[in-house]
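Comment thread on ticket #2218

A.B. wrote:
> Attaching the input chain for the structure job we discussed in standup.
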Amino acid sequence: MPILHYIYILIFLLLVVGSAYEIFIEKKKNKYFCIGVVILLIIATGFRVNVGPDYPIYRNLFVGFSLFTDYSEVLQKALFQQTDEEIEWLYVLLNKLIFDVGLPFYIVTLIMAIIAMSLKVKTMFQYLEYPVLGIFFYFMPVMFFEDSGQMRQGIGIAICVFSFRYIIKRNLLAFMVCIYIALSFHKTSIVFVPAYWIVKIPMNRIRIVLVLLVGVLISPFGVFKLFSGVMDFLTPSEVNSAYAGYIKDAGEGTILESGLNDVIKLGYIFLLVRYDKEACAKVPYYEYMRNLGVFGLFIFYIMRTNAIFAIRLPGVYMFFLIMFCMPSIVFAVKDTAKKTLYVIIMVYFSIMFFHFARISGDSLNFTIGKYKNVLWDGYE
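C.D. wrote:
> Ran it. Output below, let me know if you need it in another format.
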């Protein structure tokens, strides 16, 4: 049976110990533990070689950007002028600079991993009482789909997540600057613009259920067809084909047929509704996180009949649902419910660890015998 590589096993075990320790023993944040885990995540992701669905495509583009794109085109793209280049300008600029100074492609993946993972974990540490549990939700298995897969969108999501602090502070200018930078890595970041106002919508259990019911009911009517041609703008064809195959994986619940995906989503919805009052009372800005998570579910359901839309567009909102709302709910509930939820979550993570390795991890080189890393395997 395929097993994820030893570095992933190490990270998994550390997160089991760290999350249990912060919940049941120390009951406070451990900054240095989180830093240590982030370093391991960056090593596993940033120094990987030929691992993940889009890796070969990005590696080819790395050379293509530098040979066929000049800096004047990059500037034009930054100023929203029309060019022949489909990929976002800041990602192109990063690749071109690294190539022009003679550095290898793994420097690109390393820089992307450092930025994306640092911003995500920094924000989780700041706004979660159980940041290690939040990192665990991210690692198992979102990280494999975002920052080890579609890394441009992964860094776009990271910058949008970082902008949460400016939503809280009601600093629209700083928020929009973050959105511009996120857009410079991936166009789907544009969907996060409404977040600045969505967080202020009054919600309760009944409204959450009603919003999601509306999304489910209108889903069969193919709402995504109203956005004909938009997906071509949001996802360049060079990368989109690889990602389209990747989202068929059931390991994260991203397969869109009825099954594991629906069970996972229903579990999230149940927890949102059941423990809404408790979380709102104990977790600062939980209402903001919850509103973003509910909107992500709403987008998912209305776009459910189109695989690319359903997975790509709600990505950053689903990050708040999973990585922010779920750990916050565990923090907010009483001890008996806390222990029960933690055990259920650990069982889920354990199943996903082996399930992901079997379904997609092996074919995408995340497993023992296939995973390669610059630090101990060298660079091809």
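A.B. wrote:
> Thanks. Noting for the ticket: DSSP finds 21 helices and no strands in the chain.
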